[in-house]
Amino acid sequence: MSGFFGSIGKANCVYDVFYGTDYHSHLGTKRAGLAFYNAWLGFQRAIHSIENDYFRSKFAGDIKDFAANSGIGVISDMEAQPIVVNSHLGKFAIVTVSKINNLDELEARLLKKRNHFAETSQGGPNPTELTAMLICEADDLVSGIENVYRLVKGSCSMLLLTEKGLIAARDKLGRTPVMIGRKEDTYAVASESCSFFNLGFETVRDLGPGEIVRITADGVEILKRPYEKMQICAFLWVYYGYPPSFYEGINVEECRYRCGAALARRDNILADFVSGIPDSGIAHAVGYSNQSKIPYMRPYAKYTPTWPRSFMPLNQEIRNLVAKMKLIPNRSLVGGKSGIICDDSIVRGTQLIGNTRDLYEAGIREIHMRVACPPLLYPCEFLNFSRSKKAMELATRKAIKNLEGDIDANLTEYGNPDSERYGAMTDAIKNSLNLTSLKFQRLGDLVDAIGLSKAKLCTHCWDHSSYS
What we know:
six-stranded antiparallel β-sheet, 17 helices, alpha+beta, seven-stranded antiparallel β-sheet
């Protein structure tokens, strides 16, 4: 994933952009960047690697040199951003939250037209630069953004800093969120509404799918009205969205309480305590505990001063090490007891193997795993929220391969929680993880917990259902 933040007003916005961008650090793992504009100095930019350090540490030395009333920032999962462009449409800086599945095809298309790429340090085209080039094929910025919507397969939300203000555009199906905030005579636009509160902004509204707006210190102008169809990623509420954030007016933490409660209503396990795998499993566990009346406990303490989020390192061996080292079991709480452990999802299952091993070594008697979403049967084609790019990396497909000899066999049945094959797959995953019992959320219960109609949610990774 990635996340962006921008601000424009009648006063210096540098610190708002700096801290607002920092509030998106949970979404990106590799690069971060800031760009500002003022009439005297033009465009200023800074980009740093954040693979081995935090955003604030990397950029603290840069912001003292910036002065502007408009700027944008990004925490990027992969590519270096922002890109600053000088074109027939004028000068602009651009950041994106995107996953472009036809990147090679679009690269070839642009090269055939005698374009060239400057940002190729990662062995291929920079997706944000490619997006800028597609915009510049048109006669104006709005038509250019619509050209991106037309050509890109996957998803792309973007934020442009121009000499006349900010232009924000949400992915054509709204797969990723974009919202506008305001305080006095200053506006902000962000991927996460949680970035607004401590900076004094109040959320004005979400952009609709495919909507394009221009934001100045004087207000918000709609340049293109939203499309009717929406497919916002349901996994925002399950896992990678930040707890205080709202998407489509629905709070993340409250949704996770409802997810946990739904799991409890379908369960009859008696246990000594309920707990969640930190961090994203905690709210699901609180919801389960509140509904079941089984006491909530914290058998894990998360050591955060030096250990980053476990998905950050690209190397799986290092990710496993981080996952193990940052969670410390509390033997006093689990010894001889039966626990219901909630987590947001099971992707590969590699980290969960370590979690269960540690709990058994700490003396737990039984582990009843409850998962807040259905089994992940399909890799995500639209966002970069998981390192799993291939079906065989998923715990479900490994189980299906062992049961059927074919990772693609009978997937409809394996996605049906009332089928024998679903039960067999769940048992296979349970046994591979050494769990006492394992239950997944039903998709209908997850949709109800979110509170949007299923037609407005992308549920592709569970049931292969999505618009293109």
